[in-house]
Design a protein that fits this description.
heterodimer; A: 251 residues; mainly alpha; Ferritin; 0% strand; globular; B: 332 residues; 13 helices; 66% helix
Chain lengths: 251, 332
């Protein structure tokens, strides 16, 4: 395994990059003005975090690649984002359910990273935590509000939960990269975070009057890059197009 | 800015002596640069005009998210993507302050939204033009926000308090938008041949529509005279357009770009640039709904509103349940 820390940092940066991109697709199309503002704000936070994580990844790698090179010049198989974050937006309910499931994992993961033995990682986690705490508060409130809203909103939210649940498990799969990070005190073991995630998610789903799916089957292949969904390639054709079409240009 | 062709009462401006005592007292407050606040008495015409003007401005901010949102997912660097997101977020925020300012005049945001979606209320003609290359993100910031600032800076002194205060905040953000737009243009104009071509093409396409943003000449318009007497319009359209041209031409020269106007030249005598009027037939076509993107813009807003109905209803239903539960607890 080459450079586990680089792998680890691209996982963090690719999650925020891919989710930030997805959320930004909503710009100008949200159900209500306040949501337009909140979605743009969330996307902005995530892109800001991407700059920090991928910037550090490039530095750790030491091959002269910066955050932009990593974001715009890698192909699908080099992306290390979770399958959850590349899922299409669907309706607003699916977007907010995806956000909630990610935030519930992300906020706890970042909280642990604040104690990282690597001070650069701890610093990024600390900065990100402030933003992600707010993301979680908002996505929880929205899931509760829509789950426990009208009959239609309830049905839509349950459908979103059922659709996305198979992508939850991947967040808690530990592999050799995680093991290397745990060994150096850099990051926690993802598997160890499942209990707190379950408690938080169960509480929110109960308040939302939603039923947690019984089957915990988990799709995998995002964080290792082994098998992304078909959606990521399409996203990259859009995200990377200018950089790829005009490789000599600086922007 | 973003308010064009606002029709006020067509009666012409009354002199103080022609006014009844209430109206006269109102006009005297305006003349003394006093701010009018929501609970103060105001003439119906003043109220109606302001609702139209502020509403049109708010709608422009909302529809204005679309041409820029068009490039967020294709922004060429993370920094540019973040800046563009922040800008579009600011615009939605401006829409929000302005709707709040309009609501103080007794109209609801939902009503104004319905009027936008049905086509009854307008938004600025500029947002009916497409954004075709990355350089358009530069041109929109530089020219469109630049033109908007020309009108909005004086409106910070407008007579209606909530509008003036909203404008103070908006102006701060708009000037940042304009700077970042110019920054994109600099990068493009000093970049590769393809980038320079994109920059020139963007200027070619946005120059005329930017000049149209100020509206047709209103020197002899009774509507404008009334709005100016009420201090809800601070300068004539031609005055602002000239100011915009005078400011922008040297900026284009600095970029090494050519303003698409063969008649453009410095007039020593006037101390201003002489320039050609934009194509006003095109302007009226756009206002009638025949701009390149009118249909798409309104379709996008209607789709967002229609598809968001279940969300708004769901959140309202939940809020009502929470209130009922709290009332139940209080009663026990």
């Amino acid at each position: 395994m080459t450079q586990p820390q680089f792998e680890f940092l691209t996982r963090l940066g690719d999650n925020t990059l891919v989710l930030g991109h997805r959320v930004s697709e909503w710009c100008g199309h949200a159900p209500v003005l306040e949501e337009d503002i909140a979605l743009a704000n969330t996307a902005l936070d995530l892109i800001g975090q991407t700059q920090l994580w991928l910037g550090l990844a490039g530095e750790v790698e030491g091959k002269g690649r910066d955050a932009d090179t990593l974001a715009f010049h890698r192909d699908v198989w080099d992306f290390r984002s979770l399958l959850l974050v590349e899922q299409p937006n669907g309706d607003f309910g699916q977007t907010m359910m995806r956000q909630f499931l990610f935030d519930a994992w992300h906020s706890n993961y970042l909280a642990q990273l604040m104690d990282s033995s690597d001070s650069r990682i701890a610093a990024i986690a600390e900065k990100s935590t402030k933003e992600v705490t707010y993301h979680l508060e908002r996505s929880s409130d929205t899931v509760i509000g829509l789950g426990d809203g009208t009959e239609e909103s309830h049905v839509r939210m349950q459908k979103a939960l059922d659709r996305l649940w198979p992508f939850v498990g991947e967040m808690f799969v530990s592999d050799e990269v995680d093991a290397a990070m745990v060994a150096e005190g850099i990051a926690p073991d993802p598997a160890s975070l499942r209990g707190e995630f379950d408690t938080l998610v169960n509480n929110v789903l109960t308040a939302a009057t939603l039923t947690r799916p019984q089957d915990d089957f988990a799709h995998k292949g995002g964080k290792t890059g082994g098998r992304h969904t078909e959606h990521l390639g399409h996203m990259l054709t859009q995200m990377q197009w200018l950089q790829r079409a005009y490789p000599d240009a600086s922007w | 800015m973003y308010a064009q062709m606002i029709k006020s009462t067509g009666e012409g401006v009354k002199s103080l002596d022609e006014m009844d005592p209430q109206e006269r007292a109102f006009q005297e407050r305006i003349n003394a640069n006093d701010k009018i606040e929501p609970k103060d008495w105001m003439p119906d015409g003043y109220r109606k005009n302001l609702i139209r003007q502020i509403g049109q401005h708010a709608h422009s901010e909302i529809v204005g998210q679309l041409p820029e949102g068009n490039w967020i997912t294709r922004a060429p660097t993370l920094e540019r993507k973040a800046i563009l997101l922040a800008k579009v977020q600011d615009e939605a925020g401006h829409g929000l302050y302005l709707y709040c300012a309009a609501e103080t005049l007794g109209v609801s945001r939902d009503q104004m939204t319905r009027d936008l979606l049905s086509g009854k209320m307008k938004y600025s003609s500029i947002f009916n033009y497409p954004t075709l290359t990355w350089a358009d993100m530069g041109a929109v910031g530089w020219l469109v926000d630049g033109a908007a600032i020309m009108n909005q800076v004086p409106l910070q002194r407008t007579s209606y308090g909530p509008y003036a205060r909203a404008m103070v905040r908006i102006c701060k953000e708009e000037s940042f938008h304009q700077r970042q737009g110019y920054d994109i243009m600099m990068k493009m104009a000093n970049g590769t041949e393809a980038q320079r071509k994109m920059a020139q093409d963007a200027l070619n396409r946005f120059w005329g529509p930017s000049l149209m943003m100020f509206g047709p000449s209103d020197e002899n318009s009774v509507h404008s005279a009334q709005s100016m007497a009420w201090k809800i319009k601070m300068n004539s359209n031609d005055e602002l357009r000239q100011k915009f041209v005078d400011q922008t031409v040297p900026q284009a020269e600095y970029l090494g770009l050519t303003v698409p106007d063969d008649t453009l030249r410095w007039n020593e005598e006037r101390g201003h640039y002489d320039f050609a009027q934009p194509d006003w037939d095109e302007f009226f076509d756009v206002l009638k709904g025949n701009g390149p993107c009118n249909t798409e813009r309104l379709e996008a807003r209607n789709k967002a509103w229609d598809e968001g109905r279940w969300v708004r209803e769901g959140l309202l239903a939940h809020a009502a349940k929470k209130r009922a539960a709290a009332a139940q607890v209080a009663a026990e």
